[in-house]
Amino acid sequence: MKFAPLAVLASLSLGVHAHFRLLFPEPRGVFVADQEPNFCGGYSDVTTNRTTFPLEGGFFRIRQGHEDWSTSVLVSVAPNPNSFDTFKSGGEDLYARFWANESKTGNFCIPLDLSASGVSGVEDGANVTIQIVLNGGDGQLYQCADLTLSSNYTFPSDIQSACVNETADHTAHGTETSTSPSTSETAGSSGSGNGQLGGFEHLPVLSALGAGVVGALIAIAL
Ligand SMILES: *[C@@H]1O[C@H](CO)[C@@H](O)[C@H](O)[C@H]1NC(C)=O
Ligand SMILES: *[C@@H]1O[C@H](CO)[C@@H](O)[C@H](O)[C@H]1NC(C)=O
Ligand SMILES: *[C@@H]1O[C@H](CO)[C@@H](O)[C@H](O)[C@H]1NC(C)=O
Ligand SMILES: *[C@@H]1O[C@H](CO)[C@@H](O)[C@H](O)[C@H]1NC(C)=O
Ligand SMILES: *[C@@H]1O[C@H](CO)[C@@H](O)[C@H](O)[C@H]1NC(C)=O
């Protein structure tokens, strides 16, 4: 009867994707972990409470808890971007920002100059939608934000000042004041940044699962 609990653990661990949070601009709706592998993180329809976003010199901010990830940004000028096809033209993805890779975990402010996308209709006053695509090594994850572009908009100081990179690799520990050791950290897993990323609501579950899986593996080895 050893197989049943192992199978449960295996399927649970498969469900632990390399989730990320889109912190700015605000996504279409509240974060739902299970939905993140789906189009726009499960929010398929456009919202009306758009975020004003600069045409040039913008950025997006994400929190990423797994090492070795890459991200890209797609843009759509469709009135209701509700499918992956609405982020394509002639079958090609409309990139506002092509894939870039990063090894560290933490919070990242990533420059996003939408005017440089060259996508027709991305202009002053336009309503557009961006879809942040993140690859953490186990498939792609998605979050969307509905925007209104402005060529004369500058970020308020609170948004501007929140934009700092706060990486959470081992060497950064000393700079973090609210660090609490996590079980996955002592296990030396790739979730070592989790201690810093206390904002993840599912973190206790993740840590518990991590410990459970490690425990199960040790049990087998013994
Ligand atoms: C828009 O409204 C929805 C529902 O109230 C909310 O979840 C979402 O965060 C809002 N988005 C923005 C960009 O304010
Ligand atoms: C942009 O979207 C807002 C909110 O949905 C809407 O009120 C406005 O008319 C739209 N503007 C354009 C140019 O389509
Ligand atoms: C960067 O990420 C992309 C997409 O995940 C991948 O195809 C590529 O090999 C990565 N490049 C490097 C240098 O790691
Ligand atoms: C944050 O890190 C990203 C990725 O390394 C980099 O592209 C960006 O310029 C940095 N942003 C700030 C505000 O330091
Ligand atoms: C900024 O641009 C918008 C159009 O995108 C316009 O309605 C507004 O008046 C402009 N504001 C200033 C301060 O120039």
TrEMBL record:
Region entry Disordered: which residue ranges? 168-194
Q: Which UniProt keywords apply?
A: Cell membrane, Glycoprotein, GPI-anchor, Lipoprotein, Membrane, Signal
Cellular compartments annotated: Cell membrane
Composition bias, kind Low complexity: at what positions? 174-189
Q: What is its main location?
A: membrane
Domain (Copper acquisition factor BIM1-like): residue spans on this chain: 17-167
Stated membrane topology is: Lipid-anchor; GPI-anchor
InterPro entries according to UniProt = BIM1-like (IPR046936), BIM1-like_dom (IPR046530)
* Signal sequence region: 1-18
What protein name is recorded for this chain?
Answer: Copper acquisition factor BIM1-like domain-containing protein
